[in-house]
Amino acid sequence: MASACPGCHTRTAPGARFCSSCGHALPAAPAPVPAVGTGREQVASRRTVTVLFCDMTGSTALSEWLDPEALRHVMLRYFTRMRACVEDHGGTVEKFIGDAVMAVFGVPLTHEDDPLRAVRAALDMRDSLDDLNAELRRELGTAVAVRIGVETGEVVATVVPGADQALVSGETVNVAARLEQHAPPGQILVGAVTRALVGPAVEAEPVAALSVKGKSRPVHAWRVVRAVERPATMLRGTDSALVDRTAELDALLALHRRTGRDRAGRLVTLLGDPGVGKSRLARAYGREAVRQGALVAGTDCPPYGSPGPYAPLAALLEGLAPGLPDDGGSFRDRVAALLGPVRSSRATPQGNSGQDVGGREAAGAAAALLDRLRRGEAPGTGTEEVHLALLGLLTALGRDRTVVAVLDDIHYAAPALLDAVAHLATGLTGARVLLVCLARPELLDHAPEWSEPAPTATVLPVPPLPKADCQDLVVRLRSLAGGTADDLVLHLAQGSCGSAAVPDAITARIAERAEGNPLFVEQMVAMEREGGDLESVPLSLRGLVAARLDRLPPEERELLGCASVVGREFPLDQLRVVRAGEQAAPPGEDGRTAPEELLAALVSRRIVEPLAASGGTHPGGAPETPETLPEPGGHRFASPLIQEVVYAGLSRRLRAERHERLAAWLLADGVTASPGTPPSPPPPPDHTTAGGHLERAFWHRRGLGLLDPVARRTGAAAVAHLTAAGAAALARGEVGWAMDLLRRARAVDDVCPAGGDRDGATVPGPGGGAAAAVRLRLRTALAEAHLATGHTERALTAFHAVHEEAVRTGDQATAARVRLQLAYLEPGAPGFGTALDAARESLAPLTEAGDDLGLARARLRIGQAHQSEGRHARAVTDFTAALHHAARADAELERAGTVGAFGVSLWLGPEPVPAALRRCEELLATDLDGRRMARAALLCPMAVLLATRRRFEEAREQLVLASRTLHDFGHAFAAPAVTVFAATVECLDGRRDSAEAMLRGARTDLARLGDTPLLATATRDLVRVLLEQGRAAEARDLLAPAEGDLMAVAELHALHGRLLALTGDGAAATAHLRRALDAARTTESPLCLADVELDLAHALADLADPDGPPPPAARAHATAAHRRYRAKGHLVGAARARLLRGSSAGRTGPEPAP
């Protein structure tokens, strides 16, 4: 095959050892691309190629009158010319079929301009017939013509060892053949993909859409007119203006100075095409920021395989560690020490540390959260808590110095991480923090708001380098030995280059083709040094990477293929597992080069780069410290695009096998012990990562049209592990992440039901067991996720189906768990009983199954039932048991619900308010340290306790914090629940209008969600607000009969009595209030009894002479209520009772001043 001389770039003959023009020694031909694995076998690869079909017209007529020997001579001359035309342009003849020629461009080596080469070869093939026809006319008195079809697309390609032949298959081959069949003699038709890739380099005219055999839709085609000789460029994006890097660097430094001067955080997004130099510009700015004393840290967002939405923050937090107090403590302790003074400075005016909602306990909780993120663990909290923790850390770090946080590849970030960055951009006040995000334009496809103008956010476009700077970069890189381009780019950006020398032809050609893309320049210079053909200059960055990778030695290509399966970052132990197909063997034992040697070579080629010890690279360019030195064995692809191209080149079958191999190792233990080292206890299985690998493996096998036993086992295991990961995320309260995992599991299960059609089949995965059990776990978790996201009707339908299936299969534990949900959501529905009945009857099967999550829910329901009957001591006992089971199950939702219910018993039960508040504060400082969701749940009843002590602003602050936390967990039931508590605080503060509005909104939401018990509570509260304003008619329409739980019965009788007293029906009013009093006296709630006593006093006052003093009976009940409120420590209630005792007005009169 023709190649180019590395000295003068003259085309050389196939097989030549020296250049015929300058005498330069020619490099040996690279090994064929498909030689992967150990080098002892051939494996097909997936490649983007251009396929050409050429058919001779008139050959049948020739065969009718031409002697077979003469015909053979004509065909040989024809085939020789056609092959020469193909090979002159770097193509490979796959086969001759009769009088047709099939050629492929892109096998065995990719060239970025393969589509253009194919079109030029087609033109040469057509034109070469002129000489052949002249000979045929002279010798035989005849002539021939050709018609040609060309198309580009993905194929599976294999090179036959020892044969100058490529085997390709795929739809692209069929389309190219159909285009050739529809082309008139002497014409060339190209498909849509090829037309788009050749761009202005080829003049072509559209033809009518073709209806071709085997295609359901018409095929668009263009007739090639001619190739444009040496166009100014054949790259896309040439219409964009080229500007110097000085402007971008100056803009960054100006923002840096402004951030420090104004002490206000800002977000700047460097937006540009891949390879244009965003990362290099960020590193240049980072070095200057470090020189000026800034703390610089960075991270990047992987395109897939992330264990969670916040995983990229681990490297960023590690990079920020040098800015923490250096007291020798752990990261968590150092963060807490830093945050404590900042948060304490925001304490309430009372100065009481026990009242300091954002005090040191919050600092400790934030430190614990940040430490989990630093270790790459799930936060275990809602997004708002992550936002607040990051905000607190950056604010504290930015008090005394400028902090620069760089987030690369943010277009790959999960929505939760994008939200966190946006939240920081608007919340960093009083701190010198500059957030620098690097993104491709694709970011705006799924986050268009990112480009909208904002006071604290700036989008800085990064265009290609101007021509002069690009040429200077080529010159310096060609003369650079063993270094990097970063210093040169900084030099260019500072405007200190700009050589006036006329560049040589090679430099000019590289600069022209690179179009100012520094990555293009860097890779093309490296290819030139290795003897690559500069005429294969890229048409797109992906093509450049593919062309570059094709020229690597086979073992390096094979190693990259293994690494691409792991992800952009690949630890050495995982790379060895994928490569070896077994636990890592000692280097050289399998006859292959040790991976360390291959990685060193790839690092020198700038294909991969070593990872720092923190798990990420350091765009700030800070001086090397023990924290920033490269970590042996940790590497990553220098660009995510390289990883994508390598991965796309693997066959689906090979990808599937490697994903399965890695998943099996991760699930085995994920750790390779060193020789002589005793094995350590295996870590918990990473269901998310392993499930993701199994999921990808299944879809690759499915993409091959396979649903054989291997594919079914892989799919079943993927379902099991994704289900386990989703259920765990749901238990942690990460509802959005859980729904994503469970939907992915359901998508696999829909195509490949766990175990196929055999419900008894064993499924490899967490818990193992029958396929039916795995499927049931998935459906149960999905139903719970639907419920948590507010899709109650969908959840109810799913719960009923799951319950029916669980009963049918004898899964008593699952049936009991689902019955708990249905009894709560559909109280009184036939077949499920009350929530208390369902909870009590579930204890035995759940205990037998060891289901701590189910037991936590059952104990919580039992405790809530006792609570609704006013038996708070028994309720606390059940809540304690529920907390025990929730902790064992690591169930944050159940922990939060139980803690919240415990807080309600502190509010309504016999515990005096001061003691109850101290108990809440102790819980926040100890048991709930770092448990943000549970803390938020406790803050709601704690806010009511504060309001009873007239600490209304503190109460509202706590509710705002709780609302943000619970709402951003994505749990739909949280917002109306917090609103009901907030309305109670407003009532205690005498703000009835505000309380009414809140309660009406909460009732609408609760009715939609189907939360019947909480809806009844909100309705009773609204009726009370209306009665206190004398709006009897509206209250009557909402008031339910006095039935149900004891606490509800007492309140409903009291409300009926108040309503009847307002309408003048004294006998009926008194009867209801007496029944209310009897019910309240049987509870353990002094607050319930005090409220009924006060209601009775108001009713008696309303029935008496409105102009006179309250009757003695009213004053007696008001006195009793006052005594009970004082004993409870309820200052607001005591004041209201005291007012009524000496007032001539009823309950509907004016409120006392708090």
UniProtKB/TrEMBL annotation:
* Annotated Low complexity bias: 620-632
Taxonomy of the source species = Bacteria, Bacillati, Actinomycetota, Actinomycetes, Kitasatosporales
Q: Which domain of life is it from?
A: Bacteria
Q: Check the record and name the SUPFAM superfamilies matching this protein.
A: Nucleotide cyclase, P-loop containing nucleoside triphosphate hydrolases, TPR-like
Matching InterPro entries = A/G_cyclase, AAA_16, Nucleotide_cyclase, P-loop_NTPase, TPR-like_helical_dom_sf
Q: Which PROSITE patterns match?
A: GUANYLATE_CYCLASE_2 (PS50125)
One of its GO biological process terms is:
intracellular signal transduction
* Cellular component, GO annotation: cytoplasm
The record's section on SMART domains has:
CYCc
A Pfam family that the UniProt record links to this protein:
Guanylate_cyc
- Gene3D superfamilies hit by this protein: Nucleotide cyclase, P-loop containing nucleotide triphosphate hydrolases, Tetratricopeptide repeat domain
Residue span(s) of domain Guanylate cyclase: 50-180
Annotated Pro residues bias: 676-686
What GO terms are given for molecular function? adenylate cyclase activity; ATP binding
Q: Is ATP-binding found in the keyword set?
A: yes
Keywords from UniProt, A to Z, are: ATP-binding, Nucleotide-binding
From the UniProt entry, list the residue stretches annotated as the region Disordered: 612-636, 671-692
Q: Which PANTHER family match?
A: GUANYLATE CYCLASE DOMAIN-CONTAINING PROTEIN (PTHR16305:SF28), TESTICULAR SOLUBLE ADENYLYL CYCLASE (PTHR16305)
Protein name, per record: Guanylate cyclase domain-containing protein
